[in-house]
Amino acid sequence: MKFPYCSHSHSHPDPHAPALEIKGLGVSYLSEGKFALKDFDISIKAGSAMALVGPNGAGKSTLFKAICGLLPVRCGTIRVFGFPLGACHNRVVFLPQRSEIDWQFPLSVLDFVTMGRYVYLGWFFPCTKKDINIARDALKEMNVLDLAHRQISQLSGGQQQRVLIARALTQNADLLLLDEPLNAVDVTTRQTVGEVLQKIKAQGKTVIVATHYYDHEEGRYDGAIYLKDGKQISGTKDQQGPEDLGCDCP
Ligand code: ADP
Question: What is the pLDDT of residue 65?
Fold first, then answer.
């Protein structure tokens, strides 16, 4: 099995290509097993903010993991800024769900966030002062610079989410895949995340946010992609809203 992001390759994005173009995508966790995502097609213009809406188990994380090369593609094609997977992997950042991180790992917040720079560093090249300053700026942007020297095991849920987003920001990617960044966080964190999403979009970057709660966040996005049981559901929110999808909206 060959994963596309094994080698370092930093092609420049094609400015005229869609940020993301997927045709006939099929992904499964076992090479012969049931598809977790099937017949998926999408073309997303650079600079858009899209919601990826669906209940638990719909295939949202599977799609993100396939786009960033963490799962092999069983059929179909994925092109990022006009290139096949892996050609400009430093331009794509995936923010996993908080529950996927080992928060007990002994690491300071600053070290954790600086990991967002690793995509630019070789195995034997340590972070420079510039990398550390970029990480500090991201912590500042998320209003958690005061936590820089705390252990990640000592963070609250909202702080964990801010620190995770700070790590994604340090990569300075052009396509951000955010897996439920607003799930179970306090109101202040929601506001900060919302403001940062607006800023990212204003910088011309492309953002896809997996969410259950599109009804409450609709104004933030240019459109929505709906998923259910690994299948894409076409239509606008009015025709096929979260209730039809069985989302557990608040
Ligand atoms: P969502 O992110 O929308 O909650 P997922 O992409 O996590 O959905 O899951 C889509 C489908 O893939 C589900 O049926 C889920 O059970 C299956 N799945 C997810 N992760 C794994 C895994 N590691 N191994 C096998 N099946 C998985």
Answer: 94
